[in-house]
Amino acid sequence: MTKLNLYLMGLLWLSNLQANLTVEKFFEHLGRETDKLVFYLHGTPKIEHTITPLCDEPEHYRTERFIFHKLSFANDQIRKLLLNNKGYFHNGHHQCYKLQFKQLKNSLELILIYDIRQIKCVQYQSFKAISGFDGLLIQIEHQLVGSQKLIKNNNLAQEITIGIDYGHGGSDHGAIGLSAQPEKIITRQVGFRLKKILKNLGYKIVETCPEDLKMDLDERTYLINFAESVDLLISLHANHAANKDAMGLETFFGDDQLFKKIAQSSFTNLCEVNLLGNLSKKLADTIHKAVLQEVSDNLTHAYELKDRKVRCSAAQILMGVECPAILIELGYLSNAQEAKKLNEPEYQALLANGIAQGIKNYFAK
Question: What pTM does this model have?
Answer without folding.
Answer: 0.87
